[in-house]
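Summary for the steering committee. One of the milestones for this cycle was to obtain a three-dimensional model of the protein with S-adenosyl-L-homocysteine bound, which we needed before selecting residues for the alanine scan. The sequence and ligand used are listed below.
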Amino acid sequence: MGSPRQIDPYAELRHALVTHLRHRGIRDEQVLAAMERLPRELFVHPAFIHRAYEDVALPLGYNQTISQPYTVAFMTSLLEVQPGDKVLEIGTGSGYQAALLAVMGARVYTVERQWELYQRARQLFARLGLPVQTRFGDGSLGWSEHAPYDGIIVTAAAPHIPKPLKEQLAISGRLVIPVGGPQSQILVRLRRVSEQEYDYEEFGEFRFVPLIGKEGWSETLETRPTSSSS
Ligand code: SAH
């Protein structure tokens, strides 16, 4: 980041991706500007670096994927991030989503349960000088020490909306989460309007890898919810 455009071989591809996202309906200029700055080639698995700017999800190893750029842009738009907002992400993965939020000026907290991905993302945040706070553990329970959050984004598929995440939202905070079965989910946005009330909206069908944890799917049988609270 920060290097002059003319010596960045990926700048044109990055610009073309942003143009493509505009055509697909992404309108949030803050999101588009951040995507134009963030080097996605550093976040993909090295074996897929030549495909870093295609609008597709790519394997990260360990059965996980970096989300499709359109999905990242769409979910980030739904979060309605303002600079200075405190945002929690569940499912660090490659670190791309968390890094994007940091570039947008959010104070980012992110939780990952897969050790190698957690380590790799931490190194990348350090290398890029991005102030992202990381935690290794079960993010289906949130990260209560830093709550409340202006935004919470879950980038793995949940069987239901985890109660701890609802509780860790600030008043007027937004929770964006894919909810449903292991094969497909509905993208949901919950907005906390008061201590007890939430607005609920749905944004169509998506497909994510499973959220595994106390408020997610069980590790051994990924199709069975481990908890039925909501
Ligand atoms: N946001 C990521 C993509 C995430 S893929 C990116 O930008 O690349 C989903 C990630 O969620 C995987 O890395 C998976 O290990 C992680 N995950 C699944 N269940 C989790 C849980 N309970 N807590 C934290 N991370 C979890």
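Key point for the committee: Residues 64-67, 90-91, 93-94, 96-97, 111-114, 117, 138-140, 155-156, 209, 211-213, 216 surround S-adenosyl-L-homocysteine (CB under 6 Å).
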